[in-house]
């Protein structure tokens, strides 16, 4: 029986990224080495490859594995954009089937400051502003889903089976253009799993940025391995010594507390938790 879902990743196409290598940004990862308009393309590929490997989709693995696979991904996006235009920043959704076929969709996205795509730090609450800090405007409203969600392989890997995320957004009454995100809560232990479209970052333990803790098998507890999450952890040389992984209970969140949310399209966005009714 054919698989009833596809893998996907959403990446940022932005002509402004072409100049990153000349800026010699130590925290720009793949984009510091490659002249490319694609935001962290290697991490997008790695995420899809892990998912394809998990489901034993051999043709899909062969399509995107290794340097040839990374080039296949870039070529698929480039071919699509050549037919649909590439003058302004775009969100490009790349889909991968079990038989190794790549396809793309695209939609416009607003400009994002480079310091929000490649932050040197996430400034602690109340700290003095530095010129290299990411912008905190415009603010994102962050709410907590009032219904818990069961973790599964579909909450760990990014697939087109997204009913749990869509219904969470419906419950929070989020329209596509709203500057609002909803956080999903793990039904097993009441911890924050992820946002419907983003990875959340909170301040705990004397100001450290913390996130979900990996399980023994290497999977995050219900959290799909977001591209921007890898940007924020010490292993990827961004926000070095500032970011750590830790469980965050939904009940520990405070109304009005500052946080950051991130993904592979918009980078890092400042937000505030809202628990009280509007």
UniProtKB/TrEMBL annotation:
One Pfam entry name: Aminotran_4
Protein name per the record: Aminodeoxychorismate lyase
Region of interest called Disordered, as start-end residue ranges on this chain: 114-137
Molecular function per GO: catalytic activity
InterPro entries: Aminotrans_IV, Aminotransferase-like, BCAT-like_C, BCAT-like_N
Top-rank taxon, per record: Eukaryota
Lineage, top ranks: Eukaryota, Fungi, Dikarya, Ascomycota, Pezizomycotina
